[in-house]
């Protein structure tokens, strides 16, 4: 078939083509509420090869990396001129692994020496894939390997067939290349590296020579030989100049892997084996690592990043705070060290506005600790600071300025940088000598409200890196690994948390239809399902696919195929493929409504009834590239709606967690391991209420996952951290968070005496593929009390009062097991009140409970309750209904794990099953999405 016409694998009639679109394109149901579909996604179709210097005509080849045929009829192809738009012909279908070449006459434009190829959906706005270049390839630009690899200069053009990725046997000689010596050897150095970028990782190469270096086809790797990126055509380093190599985004080419906490950058000749430049590090720099001076100096932590520009080699010391009136003991000047290493400050010069007359030289041996402060007192520098004055800081030569600030009047507090260390000068909220500045409107960074230490929870090499999101529910810790797209079910085993039986290697996550590799970043368990947030399909890693997927973790086998996907790409145009969804959590509708949460779509109080089919709660996702969190209702027809945007002051959002009435937003090592809590204010918006430092004895590692345990034991809840970098061979660590017990459970009444033939059901024995969940062991000081003595008789509610009008405020799981206990949340206004708990249809008295300060009580379902549909009713002791909800009871007889009191709270005495009171208090987070 000639490359001068569009190749079509199979032509289908319109109805069949429509079916192909539905089957081949995942996530078609996103968009506004009620919309059947907004815009499809690529379904694995990418640009695979480009001929821009063709003898006859230019062409663009597409391939389908998915396992389902995709109808691309009407998709739009453009070059770098957005006015040029050509559509793929009707009936163009690409079979899995097949190729389609788009060329004249359907393609009406040519491709230039410095140009681009872009593929869009039929709307002409939704970008599917793109590639740009700065000069013609000698052959073609193509992906190696086909469909998934980076673009390189191919060995030969192969329109409509697999790319020729062999190394050319006779490359055109460079004017400066000898047959035996690579021109980059000895002339090329790594000049600056940013490994914890807010948006992308990047590095610079510096050319020490007097002639330009053409690095087209040179191979870039990190510390993993399996990861490789070929520098595209036009990658030229000017003489004595800099070449920036950036990470892949939706708009620009680049390397498609990240640079880790302990990693390296290596550059090889096109043969892939001759190393010409490299740099390695053991921990992220707070700014970047750079040579000072450029090209020739030693690599060190820079003062600020200078992406694509000469390095900032100034000492990383700034003036941070000034007291010019009424200080203790007198005036003082505070300096700050912005780096992670101790700085030698001896010889630096400080002056006021009289630069020549008032000069103070810091004594030899003076140091400033990493990220620390140095205060200079008036008694040392020997001059006072006036109402209209200045402070200058010079390097040891006394001439080179490092920093300066000036003011026109004494500050009522002090004159300092806001934010601390890096922001502009202003009047501070209060004087903070030798400590971080307090600034108006800023939330103070507080010590971690829990234990100072963390400990390793996994065994060495349990994970090999890329462990990301975490979520703990009822004694089960869920974790996801992004690189290989795995879900783990972890259980406490002694002092470790290890994969359950059958989960030792994790279970592979697949998109609906069974294809792709999910770049799993976050996880939350809701009801019996697990929801995963993802940045992209790793099988098409250059395409952003910010999505939430739902899987059934009880499915058998080593792979879990999502039964639903909500692709949010339409809400994040231009989002980088590696900058998408990170953390995810879920908050019940009842909690949001009770606190007056306002829906940003409607501008009024959130009304769950506005969103039919969304279940009983709202999902919150954190986006790395925007450093913000977003609230979404996800409808069962695949549509979705954003109802809140929560901006943060962090460089990025790595994880979200909802626990104990607070939304936690967590940053990783890019923010020094800090986390923040958010609560709903009087306007109905989420606002920050606290910012916490990482535990004092914890290292600043790549903690991309964070979870808080359900149970509060002896005033502490366990915390879990997932280290994406697998530091020292361990990925999972744990600590504690201070907590308080949140209310008592019902005081149970004895159950009716069963018939003589009734025998309590034994606990089920775990199957061979499921690790046994350990029952929680009661603290030695917590002994179950005798059965409660019945108080005054409670009156059963009237079933006729169980109407929609008096459902009240209640949040409870939709399905529970007979013999299990769970947490129920009521209106916080009931705190301290005694309520009666009933189960209908036939009224069953489950006992009384005192409502905790947060509106929580614990309810236990007797093992003898019949399986089926019931109603859980909370009432006053007089029988007046306070709240009710539907409840499905399953009859497997398994007692819930995660509680105290010896696991099951049922004791068999003389054939009568008696509920025991005095159980240790736990806070359960069994969630129900619908």
Give an overview in words.
With 930 residues, the protein is an all-beta fold. Helix content is 2%, strand content 37%. The chain is built from 3 helices and 68 strands. Strands 36, 37, 38, 39, 40 and 44 form a 6-stranded mixed β-sheet that branches. A hairpin with a 6-residue loop joins strand 19 and strand 20.
Supply the helix-strand structural class.
Answer: mainly beta
Oligomeric state of shown chains: single chain
CA gyration radius, whole angstroms = 32 Å
Mind describing the biggest β-sheet?
6 strands, mixed
Overall mean confidence score, pLDDT: 81
- Low-pLDDT sequence parts: 1-42, 168-180, 742-792, 892-926
DSSP summary: helix tally: 3
SS elements, strand count: 68
Strand content: 35-45%
Helical proportion, percent range:
under 10%
Shape by Cα distribution: globular
Spatial gap, N to C terminus = 54 Å
Q: Descriptors for this entry?
A:
single chain, five-stranded antiparallel sheet, disordered N terminus
Would you spell out the secondary-structure blueprint of this structure?
Elements: H1 14-24, E1 45-51, E2 59-64, E3 70-71, E4 76-78, E5 86-87, E6 93-94, E7 99-103, E8 115-120, E9 127-133, E10 141-143, E11 151-153, E12 188-194, E13 202-207, E14 213-214, E15 219-221, E16 229-230, E17 236-237, E18 242-246, E19 263-268, E20 275-281, E21 289-292, E22 298-301, E23 317-323, E24 332-337, E25 343-344, E26 349-351, E27 359-361, E28 367-368, E29 373-377, H2 378-381, E30 389-394, E31 401-407, E32 415-417, E33 425-427, E34 445-446, E35 455-456, E36 467-473, E37 476-481, E38 486-493, E39 496-499, E40 507-510, E41 518-526, E42 529-537, E43 544-551, E44 559-561, E45 564-567, E46 581-588, H3 589-594, E47 598-599, E48 604-605, E49 617-623, E50 628-634, E51 640-647, E52 655-659, E53 662-666, E54 675-680, E55 686-692, E56 703-708, E57 716-723, E58 732-738, E59 810-811, E60 815-817, E61 821-826, E62 834-840, E63 844-850, E64 856-860, E65 868-875, E66 881-890, E67 906-909, E68 912-915
Parallel strand pairs: 34-55, 40-44, 60-66
Antiparallel strand pairs: 1-2, 1-10, 2-7, 3-6, 4-5, 4-8, 8-9, 10-11, 12-13, 12-21, 13-18, 14-17, 15-16, 15-19, 19-20, 21-22, 23-24, 23-32, 24-29, 25-28, 26-27, 26-30, 30-31, 32-33, 35-58, 36-37, 37-38, 38-39, 38-40, 41-42, 42-43, 43-45, 46-49, 47-48, 49-50, 50-51, 52-53, 53-54, 54-55, 56-57, ...
């Amino acid at each position: 078939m000639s490359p001068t016409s569009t190749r079509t694998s199979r032509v289908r009639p319109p109805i069949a083509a429509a079916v192909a679109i539905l089957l081949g394109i995942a996530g078609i149901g996103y968009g506004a509420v009620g919309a059947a579909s907004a815009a499809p996604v690529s379904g694995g179709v990418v640009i695979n090869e480009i001929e821009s210097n063709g003898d006859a005509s230019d062409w663009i080849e597409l391939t389908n990396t998915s396992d389902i045929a995709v109808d691309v009829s009407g998709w739009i192809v453009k070059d770098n001129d957005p006015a040029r738009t050509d559509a793929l012909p009707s009936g163009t279908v690409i079979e899995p692994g097949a190729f389609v070449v788009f060329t004249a006459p359907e393609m009406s434009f040519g491709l230039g020496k410095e140009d681009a190829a872009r593929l869009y959906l039929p709307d002409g706005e939704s970008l599917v894939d793109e590639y740009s270049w700065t000069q013609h390839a000698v052959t073609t630009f193509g992906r190696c390997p086909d469909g998934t690899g980076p673009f390189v200069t191919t060995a030969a053009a192969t329109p409509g067939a697999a790319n020729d990725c062999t190394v050319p046997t006779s490359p055109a000689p460079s004017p400066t290349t000898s047959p035996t010596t690579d021109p980059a050897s000895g002339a090329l150095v790594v000049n600056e590296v940013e490994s914890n970028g807010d948006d992308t990782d990047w590095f610079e190469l510096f050319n020490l020579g007097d002639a330009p270096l053409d690095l087209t086809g040179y191979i870039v790797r990190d510390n993993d030989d399996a990861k490789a990126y070929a520098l595209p055509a036009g990658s030229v380093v000017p003489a004595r100049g800099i070449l920036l190599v950036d990470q892949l985004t939706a708009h620009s080419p680049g390397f498609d892997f990240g640079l880790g906490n302990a990693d390296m950058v290596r550059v090889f000749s096109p043969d892939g084996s001759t190393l010409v430049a490299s740099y390695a590090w053991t921990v992220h720099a707070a700014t970047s690592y750079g040579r000072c001076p450029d090209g020739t100096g030693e690599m060190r932590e820079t003062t600020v990043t200078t992406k694509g520009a000469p390095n900032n080699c100034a000492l990383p010391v700034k003036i941070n705070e000034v007291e010019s009136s009424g200080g203790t003991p007198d005036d003082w000047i505070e300096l700050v060290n912005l780096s992670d290493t101790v700085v030698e400050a001896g010889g630096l010069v400080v002056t006021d506005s009289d630069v020549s007359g008032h000069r103070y030289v810091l004594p030899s041996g003076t140091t400033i600790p990493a990220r620390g402060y140095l205060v200079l007192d008036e008694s040392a520098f020997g001059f006072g600071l006036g109402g209209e004055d200045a402070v200058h800081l010079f390097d040891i030569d006394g001439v080179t300025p490092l920093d300066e600030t000036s003011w026109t009047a004494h500050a009522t507090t002090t004159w300092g940088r806001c934010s601390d260390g890096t922001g502009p000068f202003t009047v501070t909220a209060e004087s903070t000598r030798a400590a971080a500045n307090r600034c108006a409107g800023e939330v103070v960074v507080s010590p971690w409200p829990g234990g100072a230490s963390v400990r390793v929870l996994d065994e060495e090499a349990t994970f090999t890196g890329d462990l990301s999101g975490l979520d703990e529910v009822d004694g089960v810790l869920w974790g996801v690994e992004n690189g290989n797209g795995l879900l783990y079910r972890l259980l406490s085993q002694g002092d470790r948390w290890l994969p359950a039986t059958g989960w030792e290697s994790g279970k592979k996550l697949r998109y609906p239809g069974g294809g792709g590799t999910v770049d799993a970043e976050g996880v939350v368990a809701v009801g019996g399902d697990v929801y995963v947030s993802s940045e992209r399909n790793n099988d098409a890693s250059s395409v952003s696919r910010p999505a939430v997927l739902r899987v059934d973790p009880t499915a058998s086998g080593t792979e879990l195929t999502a039964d639903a996907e909500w692709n949010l790409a339409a809400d994040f145009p231009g989002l980088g493929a590696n900058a998408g969804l990170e953390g995810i959590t879920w908050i019940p509708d009842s909690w949001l409504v009770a606190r007056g949460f306002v829906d940003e779509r409607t501008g009024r109080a959130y009304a769950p009834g506005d969103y039919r089919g969304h279940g009983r709660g709202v999902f919150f996702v954190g986006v790395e590239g925007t450093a913000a969190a977003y609230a979404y209702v996800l409808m069962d027809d695949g549509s979705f709606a954003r109802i809140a945007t929560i901006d943060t002051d962090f460089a990025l959002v790595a994880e979200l967690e909802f626990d104990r009435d607070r939304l936690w937003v967590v940053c990783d090592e890019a923010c020094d391991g800090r986390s923040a809590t958010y609560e709903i204010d009087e306007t109905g918006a989420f606002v920050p209420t606290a910012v916490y430092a990482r535990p004092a004895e914890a290292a600043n590692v790549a903690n991309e996952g964070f979870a808080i345990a359900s149970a509060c034991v002896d005033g502490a809840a366990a915390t879990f951290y997932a280290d994406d970098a697998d530091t020292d061979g361990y990925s999972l660590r744990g600590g504690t968070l201070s907590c308080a017990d949140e209310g008592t459970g019902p005081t149970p009444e004895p159950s009716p005496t069963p018939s003589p033939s009734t025998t309590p059901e034994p606990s089920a024995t775990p199957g061979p593929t499921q690790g046994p969940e350990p029952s929680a062991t009661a603290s030695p000081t917590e002994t179950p009390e005798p059965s409660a003595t019945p108080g005054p008789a409670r009156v059963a509610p009237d079933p006729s009062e169980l109407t929609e009008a008096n459902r009240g405020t209640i949040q409870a799981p939709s399905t529970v097991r007979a013999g299990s206990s769970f947490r129920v949340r009521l209106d916080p206004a009931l705190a301290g009140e005694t309520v009666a708990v009933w189960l209908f249809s036939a009224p069953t008295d489950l006992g009384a409970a005192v409502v905790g300060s947060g509106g929580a009580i614990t309810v236990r379902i007797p093992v003898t309750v019949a399986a089926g549909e019931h109603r859980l009713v909370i009432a006053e002791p007089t029988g007046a209904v306070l709240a009710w909800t539907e409840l499905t009871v399953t009859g497997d007889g398994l007692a819930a794990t995660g509680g105290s009191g010896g696991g099951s709270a049922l004791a068999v005495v003389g054939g009568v099953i008696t509920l025991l009171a005095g159980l240790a208090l736990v806070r359960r987070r069994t969630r129900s999405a619908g």
